[in-house]
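User: I've been trying to design a sequence by hand for this structure and keep getting stuck. Would you show me what you'd pick, starting by listing the structure so we're on the same page?

Assistant: Good idea, let's start from the same input. This is the structure you sent:
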């Protein structure tokens, strides 16, 4: 059983089509009654394959009607080279680029679109920096729903835009940033034009919880000391926190990893709030970064993110675009893992926090790398060496590679 409640005043919210508390305007969250798990042991879940739906008892929708593309079940790489380069005890990368549309968003969308179908919706929509739109478009196609996506004009990576177009969504470029696009999309949702599937919809984070479940499951219930992830609209870090809180309440894990959020220096309202030890944040009016996925100034779930960080003894830090691109190349060239710039922020953040002495050298850390390198080929090609050119002869190729 579950109820939708206000994250701030705790009041129950009955209307499934509102995106905030009708009484106080607060963020919504799903309150799961964990009684179902009293006779359940963590290992019982392993009868199902690793993936989002292994954790169906923790998801507030009817799993027998799931709209699924077999999301989740992504690799957890033990990165030995990275570990010695950075100089800490353990580094794992949870590679979310291996999801069906190439990002972690698929975990939330399988649950969110299942919910939309349960509610009888015909049209779904979102604002997006790219990945949410790519994911929603695919799941809407699978479910036979119409889909409308609003994107910040000129600031969406090529792979993501191509995906939304490919899966048949109505793609609307908005002359503004993500925050502007989300305001318009929310208004369209309130007017009944579409069912909103941004992470402000509390069913989205429910699916995204499963990345944390999988990490713990893949580590055989040895909880890592810290989980580091990029923060944009702040839905994912909140979802990870909720997941771990649920398993801690059941006694399935004995402690919480320190949740550590990384933002790009040009879009870092949560980092500023953390430094000032505040529970709330000031929006960034002109967010800018090469990591367009997290180019967000007014993170919708910012308050939830700050709570996740404070409650677990984690930190928030920012990294420059140069640090992001260097970490992206390092991961590719030392570990063979291809991630998009926003995802590399978690690695860049780890490097910086170890250098600053914030992350101790005896820690075992998991970095969540949220999206695939193929999402943003233009940035990769700009940040790598030039391509060699040769005539079609062995001699000439020998000459240029020498
Ligand atoms: N990494 C990637 C690759 C993303 O696409 C996003 C968010 C994040 C990290 C940050 O996650 O918003 O939950 O804090 N992308 C959204 C989108 C905003 O529209 O695709 P968050």
């Amino acid at each position: 059983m579950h109820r939708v409640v206000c994250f701030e005043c705790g009041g129950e919210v009955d209307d499934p089509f509102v995106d905030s508390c009708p009484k106080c305007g607060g963020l919504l969250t799903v309150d799961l009654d964990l009684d179902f798990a009293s006779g359940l042991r963590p290992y019982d879940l392993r009868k199902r394959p690793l993936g989002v739906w292994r954790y169906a008892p923790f998801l507030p929708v009817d799993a027998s009607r799931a709209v699924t593309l077999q999301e989740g079940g992504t690799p957890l790489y033990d990165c030995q080279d990275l570990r010695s380069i950075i100089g800490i005890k353990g580094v794992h990368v949870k590679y979310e680029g291996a999801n069906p549309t190439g990002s972690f968003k698929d975990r939330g969308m399988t649950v969110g679109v299942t919910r939309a179908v349960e509610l009888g919706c015909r049209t779904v929509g979102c604002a997006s920096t790219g990945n949410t739109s790519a994911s929603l478009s695919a799941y809407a196609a699978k479910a036979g729903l119409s889909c409308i996506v609003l994107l910040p004009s000129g600031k969406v990576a090529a792979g993501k835009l191509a995906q939304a177009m490919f899966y048949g969504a109505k793609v609307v470029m908005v002359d503004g940033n993500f925050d502007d696009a989300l305001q318009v999309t929310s208004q369209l949702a309130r007017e009944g034009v579409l069912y909103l599937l941004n992470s402000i919809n509390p069913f989205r984070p429910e699916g995204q919880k499963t990345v944390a479940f999988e990490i713990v499951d893949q580590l055989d219930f040895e909880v890592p000391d810290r989980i580091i992830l990029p923060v944009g609209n702040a839905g994912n870090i909140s979802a990870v926190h909720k997941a771990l809180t649920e398993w801690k309440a059941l006694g399935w894990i004995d402690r919480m990893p320190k949740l550590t959020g990384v933002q790009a220096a040009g879009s870092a309202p949560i980092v500023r709030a953390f430094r000032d030890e505040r529970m709330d944040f000031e929006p960034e009016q002109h967010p800018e970064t090469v990591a367009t996925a997290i180019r967000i100034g007014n993170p919708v779930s910012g308050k939830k993110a700050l709570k996740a960080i404070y409650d677990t003894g984690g930190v928030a830090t920012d990294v420059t675009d140069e640090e992001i691109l260097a970490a992206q190349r390092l991961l590719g060239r030392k570990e063979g893992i291809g991630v998009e710039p926003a995802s590399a922020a978690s690695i860049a953040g780890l490097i910086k926090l170890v250098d600053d002495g914030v992350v101790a050298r005896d820690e075992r850390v998991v970095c969540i790398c949220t999206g695939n390198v193929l999402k943003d080929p233009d940035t990769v090609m700009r940040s790598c060496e030039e391509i060699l050119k040769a005539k079609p002869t062995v001699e000439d190729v020998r000459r240029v590679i020498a």
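That's my pick for every position. To get oriented when you compare it with your attempt: Residues 235-249 form the longest helix (15 residues). Residues 76-102+206-383 form a domain with the Rossmann fold fold (CATH 3.40.50.1100).
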